[in-house]
Design goal:
Blueprint lengths: L1 E7 L2 E6 L11 E9 L2 H7 L16 E8 L11 E4 L2 E2 L5 H4 L18 E2 L16 E4 L7 E2 L6 H7 L2 H11 L7 E5 L3 H12 L4 E6 L2 H11 L2 E4 L6 H8 L5 E6 L9 H9 L8 H9 E9 L12 H6 L3 E4 L4 H13 L9 E6 L3 H9 L7 E5 L4
Parallel strand pairs: 10-11, 10-13, 11-12, 13-14, 14-15, 16-17
Antiparallel strand pairs: 1-2, 3-4, 3-8, 3-17, 4-5, 5-9, 6-7
Helix pairs in contact: 4-5, 4-11, 5-6, 7-9
The structure holds nicotinamide-adenine-dinucleotide and zinc ion (2 copies).
Length: 382
């Protein structure tokens, strides 16, 4: 089969690999019909995540058709059209039993802090991902779900990560009626977080980024107010001005380890890797929230410490909430929101690349060229 393969930072290729085999009776092999590139893949692409091995296939946002099932699989049969959450999880450990699917204890021999994720380095288990023609899906009775007949492929693929994560980000914000919500980052995760904040009762939603074309999308798609942080000497002061000098009730951080906005932090974190990424957006969130407010962090960070303003967070009495999204937990409500037209994830898709052109897709998405918001990958066997 053809598969995206990592060859080192900024170097990816499409190469021939064996079609994965069933390794466990509860595995399924899925023929991928549509995949996406996530902002998280960019952290791998830039060499920022530890233990990203040469030869690894990325891709944790994908849908497909069941090609083969192991002998104990009961919920899926060959030919089913399925969506697969980015989390790999057992469904029965202490954490899974409490809905903490992204913290499953049984799927990642390399770490106890995080569970399994497809195509996301050996830090999350070393499972090959779905930017390929076929992918092995462990615990096939647990994660995947049949795609409802009425749902489009493009909505379904975005439910496997970006949409569920943005919604989860708003959920962790514990938004009360009338709250002012500030969202950092106008990528797919931030755009959905902004949209979802309205569904949860926000009175005002302000999206912050420095890419004007994405801020325009935040206004059209998520009906948010926008601020371009590059236009202000100090974005935190501007946020304070806009919120009666109190700060935001809720801040949702959808930027992560490669935040721009402070050259020193960016070089120390994202370039020299002296810390687990640049904490600029996180510190803006801490400074921009009002005392007693809540910060929900969806942006991804490396495991080593960051120069985070933790003392300020403590003194302000902030509630900090965060996790990798437990994707399938969000699906029942999200299915309804999509069916009723409240959320339209596929409107974020700007690009569709054949798998053979995936190096170009990473280049365009990484450099935010050509108005790129969300690129999809179409395998040739689809
Ligand atoms: N927790 C989870 O389960 C989960 C799931 C998916 C993605 N993520 C993470 O969420 C983050 C966003 O993902 P995405 O797909 O939307 O990525 P993306 O790269 O498309 O978007 C990130 C946006 O942040 C903007 N940005 C950079 N510095 C900023 C700053 N200081 N303030 C405000 N905006 C800034 C960028 O211009 C860009 O538009 C990534 O870190 C990704 O790894 C986490
Ligand atoms: Zn992702
Ligand atoms: Zn588990």
């Amino acid at each position: 089969m053809r598969a995206m393969v990592y060859r080192g930072p900024y170097k990816i290729r499409v190469e021939e690999k064996d079609i994965p085999a069933i390794e466990h009776p509860n595995d399924a092999i899925i023929r991928v019909t549509l995949a996406a590139i996530c902002g998280s893949d960019l952290h791998l692409y830039h060499g920022l995540m530890p233990d990203t091995r040469i030869g690894h296939t990325f891709g944790h946002e994908f849908i497909g058709v069941v090609h083969e099932v192991g002998s104990s699989v009961q919920n899926l049969k060959v030919g089913d059209r399925v969506m697969v959450p980015f989390n790999i999880y057992c469904g029965s450990c202490w954490f899974c039993a409490r809905g903490l699917y992204s913290n499953c204890h049984n799927v990642n021999a390399n770490a106890t802090a995080v569970g399994g994720i497809y195509g996301y380095s050996h830090t999350t288990g070393g499972y090959d991902g779905g930017q390929a023609e076929y992918v092995r899906v462990p615990f096939a009775d647990v994660g995947p779900a049949k795609i409802p007949d009425w749902m489009s492929d493009e909505d379904a693929v975005l439910l496997t990560d970006a949409t569920s994560t943005g919604y989860f980000g708003a959920q962790l914000g514990d938004i009360s009626e009338g709250d002012t919500v500030v969202v950092f980052g106008a990528g797919p995760v931030g755009l959905v977080a902004a949209q979802s904040s309205w569904l949860m009762g926000a009175g005002r939603v302000i999206v912050v980024d420095h890419l004007d074309y994405r801020l325009e999308k935040a206004r059209d798609f998520a009906h948010a107010e926008t601020l371009n942080f590059a236009e202000y000497q100090d974005i935190v002061v501007e946020l304070k001005k806009q919120t009666d000098y109190l700060g935001a009730d809720v801040v949702i951080e959808c930027v992560g380890a490669e935040a721009d906005g402070n050259l020193l932090q960016h070089v120390a974190g994202a370039k020299l890797k002296m810390q687990g990424g640049s904490p600029v957006a996180l510190n803006w969130a801490i400074d921009g929230a009002r005392k007693g407010g809540t910060i929900s962090v969806m942006g991804a960070y490396g495991p080593i410490p960051n120069a985070v303003k933790f003392g300020d967070a403590l003194n302000k009495g902030l509630t900090l909430r965060m996790n990798q999204a437990p994707v399938k937990r969000q699906w029942p409500r999200l299915f309804e929101h999509i069916r009723n037209g409240y959320l339209k994830p596929s409107e974020m898709v700007t690009h569709r690349f054949p798998l053979e052109e995936i190096p170009e897709a990473y280049h365009v998405f990484s450099n935010k060229l050509d108005g790129c918001i969300k690129p999809l990958i179409v395998p040739s066997a689809a």
